[in-house]
Amino acid sequence: MPFEALDFYNVDSLLTDEERMVRDMVRDFVDNEVLPKIEHACRDGVFPDEWRVTLGEMGVLGAPLKGYGCPGLSYTAYGVICRELERGDSGLRSFASVQGSLAMYPIWDFGSEEQKNYYLPKMASGEWIGCFGLTEPDYGSNPGDMITRAEDMGDHYLLNGAKMWITNGSIAKVAVVWAKLDGVIRGFIVEDGDEGFSAPEMKGKHSLKASVTSELVFQDCKIPKDRILPGVKGLRGPFSCLNNARYGISWGAIGAAQACFDSAKEYSLSRIQFDHPIASYQLVQNKLSWMLREITKAQLLAYHLSQKKDAGNWIPEHISLAKMNNVDIALEIARVARDIHGANGILDEYPVMRHMANLESVKTYEGTHDIHNLILGRHITGIQSFTRHLS
Amino acid sequence: MNITIIAETSGNQLHSVTSQLAGAAGSLGGTITLLCPGGVGESEASKISGVSKVVSLKGDCFSSFDSGAWSAAMTPHCEGVVIASSSPTGRELASQIASKLGVPVVQDLTEIGQDLKMTRSIYSGKAIETSTASGSCVITLRQNSFESAGSDGNAELITVDSTSEVSVAVKEAMAKAGERLDVSEADIIISGGRGMGDPANFSHLNEVADVIGAAVGASRAAVDSWDEIPHSMQVGQTGKTVNPSLYIAVGISGAIQHLAGMRSSKYIVAINKDPDAPIFGVADYGIVATWEEALPSLKEELAKL
Amino acid sequence: MTIAVLLKQVPDTTAKIAVSEGRVDQGSVSKWSTSPYDEYALEYALQLKESGAGDLVAITCGPSRSSKMLTDAAAVGVDSMLHVEADTSEMDSKQIQSILAAAIKHCGADVVLCGKQAADTNSGSTGPGVASLIGAACVGMVSEVSMDGDGFSALRGSPSGNERVVVSKPCLFAFDKAATELRRPNVKGIMMAKKKVIEKVSPGDLGVDIGESGIKIHAHDSPPEKPPGQKFEGAESVPTVVAKLREEANVI
Predict the structure, then answer these.
(1) Is residue A366 annotated as a catalytic residue, yes or no?
(2) Which pLDDT tens digit goes with each residue over A7-60?
(3) How many domains does chain C have?
(4) Looking at residue C57, which CATH number applies to its domain?
(5) Block mean pLDDT (10 aa), chain C, length 252
(6) How far A1 CA lies from chain B's nearest CA (Å)?
């Protein structure tokens, strides 16, 4: 059965022609090149390199960035791209999120003119893969206390420390790494092959299996002086990147949810038990109608957020709400869809369990569900509750 | 009413559909003229019941197909309602003749009723259209939808020398490639499941497929069990989704994952020795038999067509 | 030289078709697409353009929604677009062909590519009829075309296999399914398409008086329900089933 994207309120009719064409292009890529290969990619634990090539050819990497060979699309188009990619697999969307929002964006916003001209065209074309090093083994939700340090050695910087849970790490040519220089968080561009830098892959994941996850290890890693990002100091740097990535995730999760809904609907209509399709039973209809309700709400949330993003009248808390809500309902929809599929739901013949397992990661990365709750709590009350030190 | 039939040819012979065109024309009543392009099958044509006149068009322009040249030579001999076969060449000729006559063409009719009420399927069979013509028109008829005329006719045979400018030159003719179609391309698919017992037995499916130009598919069970059966043949949830006109499932029980890939086929034939196999639930025609018994007979019957 | 490709927007082949008040309910169609055979024509038209054969214009005749399809064509490299705005749903073949022939002349095209039939009407009348009207050589069932000296070389299907044929312009190629990959646009192409303006005209602007349709459509109906499945015992039933496939189902 061909995929029919659930769009109950016809929210996509609000897209511009350009955004609709981008949607159709990416949807076609996912149908024809991703879905036929995704289960094998997951089984083998690899990110197929031809996807990198096609993403570059389509010209969707770093979608909302303008100039330096970047696409210059709207944030709405970027959201649509994320949604269509994640309908294929969260790992694929993660690749694009990290490349665009976490690696290209900081160079575009905080880099020198030379850095932008040198890195961005090759990253937009997919020739160079980027990754983003913020999280450390002992500092996840609390990046401000990171251990990784940079030292000014006169003619170069010396980097020491380790980053963990780094998407694209082992396949990246370019790593944007956040480290403390004289106690202040700064961004550094580390390249594959730099002395003292290694990126061993983390194996054994039950989630995002078609995505590369790595550690980044810096042992007296020598970085030329022109590789510091001159334009930003402090946590504002990495957080601006995360805002964009989280925005993309709020759209992406809808794609995963749509895929699960579509599969559950088709399955329930064709699965006969007690002489009738299980779709004819009230308990199943209740589940399907709940999915429809949540997906429709998520779509409206994401669309309205995209308009704010494009108009520039947004605050990070708006993004927290959308990321938290949409991933949360997508995960729950995946679980319920798995339930509707019965035993068949655990097979890789159906996409639901893969999406379910992926979304467990998506719920945790880029600000856990709970951290986003705390961000909103602080916004409502004016009292931060991340730490016990009230200040 | 005058009716002109464009004979359908197959190589150097009259195609059997020509007699069906005459049968349909006969039901309309009127004087029937039959045009034989290149003179092919003229004597057989003159024996088709109900045909009053056969015009045998001879000329170099008929040596290879060129709808422009053929229609230019034929149009002067077309009178009244013009009927052709809805084969690709029949449609092309019909459309060109209609254009030269300045009348509309209606293609691929499956029924003709009183007052030339025309029935055809549209949207790939998802809807049926009925229409009538206010004046003259050219129509093409679907093969095997109309009764053949008898063969006890005795039509007047007129030979006409035609000249027409040929603008499509055939440089090279290539015989049909022996390569088998991919399941996603084919209009007819015959698939085997684990019930085939052994991958070597797929050769029996191949033989049937060759007779009717079908692609050969497989269920996941067969693909997973036997290395000889490649994933590219797999029809189903994780294989290909197909919607051919005819899907023949042999030794396939009909797991829900398989049904997901083929249930939108227009017609489904199931051959399975287990009368309770779920595949019979979606089959239009089910045959409870082993493949060993059914396939030779199937091949023989299809070869007769 | 100008190359024209004729495109028609049709309900996507996966879309459900509903009938309401004696006509296919176009309003209920969930997705509109370029007719599949036309997409092969477009692909080869782009290849001809890229091999230096000339500029490529995409032409459609249909309601205003069809413009989207022309913008899609622009995103993969069509140079210009002509949209003859008209509701063709009750037109006969003669009317549609006269509009398209006038559109082709309007664009000055002498090489025309189109699909062998549209996925809605399933007729296959347009290509050959238009060829006749513009005095072009007509090649049907085409699966490949390329420049060959001053003319063109095409591969066409025939009952006995494939034939390589050569024609000179003016000529028209009606495409069957081809072995080639269809191209996907990219963001650059989509941005370019935004800047290209679709020329919109009415049949009257082209100087065409289409007159009255010679065919009156009485009704569209849903196809009759398929009879329930029939089950036969034993291999001796094979001849019966084959006969039914031929006579009831009409699929062999």
Answers:
(1) yes
(2) 999 999 999 999 999 999 999 999 999 999 999 999 999 999 999 999 999 999
(3) 1
(4) 3.40.50.620
(5) 96 91 93 95 97 96 96 97 96 97 97 96 96 97 94 91 94 93 94 94 95 95 88 95 89 84
(6) 7
Name the amino acid, one letter, at A386.
Answer: F
- CB proximity list for A39: less than 8 A, separation 6 or greater: A348, A354, B238
Is there a domain that residue C30 lies in?
A: yes
Neighbours of B228 (CB within 10 A): 11
- Distance between CA atoms of residues A194 and A224, nearest Å: 10
User: How many other CB atoms sit within 10 Å of the CB of residue C65?
Assistant: 11
> Rounded distance, CA B96 to CA B88, Å?
13
Q: Please enumerate in sequence order all residues whose Cβ is within 8 A of that of B55, keeping only pairs 6 or more positions apart, or say none.
A: B33, B34, B35, B36, B77, B158, B160
Measured CA to CA, the distance from residue B122 to residue C215 in angstroms comes to 15
Which residues in chain A are closer than 8 Å to B260, comparing Cβ atoms? 1, 266, 270
The boundaries of the domain holding residue C146 are: 2-224
pTM: 0.91
**Site of tokens 């697999």:** A89
Q: Strands C80-85, C198-201: parallel, antiparallel or unpaired by DSSP? A: parallel
CB distance B131–C226 less than 8 Å?
no
**∠C219-B95-C215 over CA atoms, to 5°?**
25
Q: In angstroms, what separates the C-alpha of C188 from chain B's closest C-alpha?
A: 31
Does some domain include residue C187? yes
In a domain, C139, yes or no: yes
Residue C242, domain member (yes or no): no
Q: How far is CA A177 from CA A95, A169, C79, in A?
A: 17, 11, 45
* Predicted complex ipTM: 0.94
Q: Are the CB atoms for B240 and B260 separated by under 8 Å?
A: no
